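Standup notes
- DV: blocked on the single-chain target, sequence here:
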Amino acid sequence: MDMRLTFRHNRAELRSAVETMIGQAPERVILAHGRWFETDGTARLGQSFSWLLS
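- DV (later): unblocked, structure below
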């Protein structure tokens, strides 16, 4: 939810960044804060940002 509020005025910029991350097809996604994904990184990013990409 924090990211939704932070980027509410820059939604297109965030969508572009997320599409770039997903386009790199990562297997693992390690975040500085919060949960990280050891496998299926691309799919997990898509799920995490489905609110933005749909």
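- Follow-up: The chain has a mean pLDDT of 89.
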